[in-house]
Amino acid sequence: MKIVVCIKQVPSTEAKVQMDPTKGTLIREGVESIINPFDEYAIEEGVRLKESYGGEVTVISMGPPQAKDALKTALAMGADKAVLLSDRAFAGSDTLATSYTLSLGIRKIGDVDIVICGKQATDGDTAQVGPGLAQRLKLRQITYVSKIREIDAANKKITAERLIESGTQVVSASLPALITVVKDINQPRIPNIFSIKKATRAEIPVWGARDLGGDPKDFGFDGSPTQVVRIFTPPPRQGGEIIEGEASEAVAKLIEALSSRNIL
Amino acid sequence: MDFDLTEEQQMIKKMVAEFAEKEISPVAAENDLQEKFPSDIVKKMGELGIFGTVIPEEYGGGGFDNIAHAIVAEELGRVDSSVRGIYSVQVSLVALTILKWGNEDQKRKYVPRLASGEILGCFGLTEPNSGSDAVSMQATAVEDGDSYIINGNKMWITNGGVADIAVIFAKTDKNAGARGITAFIVDTKTPGFSTRDIHQKLGLKSSNTAELILTDVRVPKENILGEAGHGFKVAMSALDFGRYTVAAGCVGLAQGCYDAAKKYALERVQFGKPIAGHQLIQEMFADMTVDIEAGRLLVYRVGHLKNKGIPNTREVCVAKLFCSEMVNRVAYKALQVFGGYGFSGEFPIERYYRDARINTLYEGTSQIQKLIIASRDLGISAF
Ligand SMILES: Cc1cc2nc3c(=O)[nH]c(=O)nc-3n(C[C@H](O)[C@H](O)[C@H](O)COP(=O)(O)OP(=O)(O)OC[C@H]3O[C@@H](n4cnc5c(N)ncnc54)[C@H](O)[C@@H]3O)c2cc1C
Ligand SMILES: Cc1cc2nc3c(=O)[nH]c(=O)nc-3n(C[C@H](O)[C@H](O)[C@H](O)COP(=O)(O)OP(=O)(O)OC[C@H]3O[C@@H](n4cnc5c(N)ncnc54)[C@H](O)[C@@H]3O)c2cc1C
C-alpha cells in the first residue's frame, strides 16, 4: 500500500506566538517549530498501516527549508521517504494554493492508495487543506477519523469511524481515499535510536514549482484568492465583578446585576 | 570551535527528553518511595535502543558520538538519577569497557545484548575494606585448570542484585600490587555467586545497590577481560568512561533542580510579588545558571576529546569533580528557593537534593579526583 502523510511545521504550541499587526503575519523568529500536533497522529497512523498491511509511507510538507526538521522527525517515527515542497513561488499561499501545490506533489509521487492529513493545523486552524486536497486529487474523503476499522486491500475499501458531535459515525469508502485524523486515533510513538540514525542519513528531495509543473498563477500569492485583512491577539480578559457578602444578599445582588444587563 | 549540537544530537536529546517526561517522570517519586527497581523503564529503554546510543552499529548500537551519550545521561539525570545511574553502569562501566578490552568473541557475545537491554551488567571493584585504595582489594582468583576460582566480597555495587553479568576485579597475584589484579566477566548465575541488596540509602533509592558475595566461583579463562595482571588498567579506563556519564548526569540533575525552582519562584508570592522578583532569590538563580553552564561545557569538552580518541583521564576528573560538587550547590540553592515546601516529598526537589549527594562519593570521591588532577599536573603522585 502506498501511503502519503501531509505534515505542516507550526510554531510550538507552548511558545507565546506574537502577531505582526501591520503585516498580518506570525512573528516566527526565535519561536521553536514543531510538527503540527495533529500531524503526529497522521504519521503514526500511516506507519501503523504500513506495519499491518505492508507498503511504504512518504511524508510531504510544503514550507520553508527548515521544514526539513519536521520531515526528519517523521522519518524517525518510521516513515520511509520524505519530500519537501519549497520554492519562493509558494510564499503567501492560502489554503487553496496550499492544496493545489500539495496535490501536484502527491501526483508526482504517484499511485497513492491513501493520503492522511491532520484534522487541522494549530496555527492556520482552517481544517481546509485536507478536504481541498481530496477535491484536487479527486479522492473520496473521510474527515475527523478516530479509528480505521479495516482496510480491505483486495476490494480496495476502507472503513473508518468519524468523530462527530453527536457520537461516532462509521463510513466506508473505496480507495484511493484521503482521511483527516483526530487525536483519539492513536498514541504517537517515541522514535528509537535506529530510526533517528536512519532519518539523519536520509536525503530529502526538494521540489520547486518547476519540478511540479502546474500553472504559475495558481501558486503562492497569485494563486491565493483570500487575504488576511487584519490579524490581532484578542486583549486578555479583564477580571469579572466579584459580589461579596452573605449568600442571601449576594444572590439578590447577582440577580439584580444580571437582570439590569438583560441577561435574565 | 563549534558550540552547536548536530542534528542527530538534537534528535537524540528530544527523544530522550520525551521518553523521560512521558515514561520516567510520572513514576519516579513512587519508585523512590518504594525503593522499587524500575524494570519496566529499563525494558523500554532497551526497546528504544537508548542503552545502545554510543555503541557502534556493528555491535547492535546506534553509533552515535560521545556528546550524544552525555546528552542521554543528562536527560535521564534531569528527571531520575536512579535511572541515569543504571544507564551509566550498563553502558559506560560495562559495555564500553568490554568493547575496549574484550576480544572479538567477548564483544560479540555481550555488547549487543547490553545495548538492547536484554542483559544487565554491573561493575564490581569496591570491597568492604577497599574503596579509594582499590589496589588493596582482597578478592582473589586462583588458577585451576582451564578456570579461575574467585573468592571475595564486593560492596556498594550498582545493579548488583539485578545484573546478568558482572565485571569483577580480583587478585591473581597477591604480591604484585596493581599488576596483580585481573578483570573477569562473570555470569551472575554461576554457582557460588550471591548478592545482598543494600537498603535505606540516602538517595538513588530506586536503583539497586548490592553486596556481591563470591564463594568459589568458577570462571573459565576465556572470561578474562583484557589480560591477566592488567585489571587495574581496565578498572581505571572504565572509570574514564563512567565518570563522564556521572558528570553529565550531574548537569542534568542540576538542570532539573533549576527548572523546578524556576517554576516555583515564578508562582510563589511573598511580600506582594513572585519570589523570583526578590534580589536575593535572583542571586541564587544567577549562581545556579553559571554553575550549570560551566559544568555542561566541561562535560562536552571531554566528549570532544573522546570523539577524537584523545586520552582524557585528567579532563574527565576535572569535569566529574566540578559537576558533582556543582550539583550539590545547585540542589542546595534550588531547595532554598522552595522554602519549607522544599523539605517535603510534595515536590521533586526533595528527591533531587538527596540524589545529588552520591555524586561526590562514587566513581572516585572528590578528594581522589583532586589527587589525580594535581598529580598529573605536578608530576608527583600523592598516593
Ligand atoms: C496567521 C495565519 C493566517 C492565515 N490566514 C489565512 C486566510 O485568511 N485565508 C486562507 O485561506 N488561509 C489563511 N492562512 C492559511 C495558510 O495559508 C495556511 O497556513 C495554509 O494554507 C494551511 O492551512 P491551515 O494552516 O489552516 O491548515 P489546515 O487546513 O488546518 O491543515 C489540515 C492538514 O492539512 C495538512 N497541511 C496543511 N498545511 C500543510 C503544508 N504546508 N504542507 C503539508 N501539509 C499541510 C496537514 O496534514 C494538516 O494537519 C493563514 C495562516 C496563518 C498561520
Ligand atoms: C550508591 C553507591 C553506588 C556505588 N556503585 C559502585 C559500583 O557500581 N561499583 C563499584 O565498584 N563501587 C561502587 N560504589 C563504591 C564507591 O565507588 C566507593 O564508595 C568510593 O570509591 C569510596 O570508597 P569508600 O566508600 O570505601 O570510601 P574510603 O575510600 O574509605 O574514603 C573515605 C573518605 O576518605 C577520603 N580519602 C580516602 N583516601 C584518601 C586520600 N589518599 N587522601 C585524601 N582523602 C582520602 C575519601 O575521599 C573519603 O572522603 C558505590 C557506592 C555507593 C554509595
Structure write-up:
The complex is a heterodimer of chains A (264) and B (383). Chain A is an alpha/beta fold. Chain A is 29% helix and 26% strand. Chain A has one domain (2-218): HUPs (Rossmann fold). Chain A has a nine-stranded mixed sheet with strand order 11-10-9-12-8-1-6-7-13, sandwiched between helices. The longest helix of chain A is centred in the first third of the chain and has 17 residues, at 37-53. Chain B is α+β, with helices and mostly antiparallel strands and 383 residues long. Chain B has ten helices and ten strands. Chain B has a four-stranded mixed sheet with strand order 1-4-5-8. The radius of gyration of chain B is 21 Å and the shape is globular. The two termini of chain B are 37 Å apart. The interface between A and B is medium-sized, with 13 and 21 residues. The structure holds flavin-adenine dinucleotide (2 copies).
Quickly describe the structure.
The complex is a heterodimer of chains A (264) and B (383). Chain A has 264 residues and is of the alpha/beta class.
Low-confidence stretches of chain B: none
Count of separate structural domains of chain B: 3
Number of strands of chain A: 13
Distinct small molecules bound, one entry per kind = flavin-adenine dinucleotide
Q: If you consult CATH, what is the topology of chain A?
A: Rossmann fold
Number of helices of chain B: 10
- With strands numbered from the N-terminus, the spatial order across the biggest sheet of chain B is 1-4-5-8
Strand segment tally of chain B: 10
Structural class of chain A: alpha/beta
End-to-end distance of chain A: 59 Å
Helix-residue proportion of chain B: 40-55%
Radius of gyration of chain B, CA atoms, in whole angstroms = 21 Å
Mean pLDDT of chain A: 92
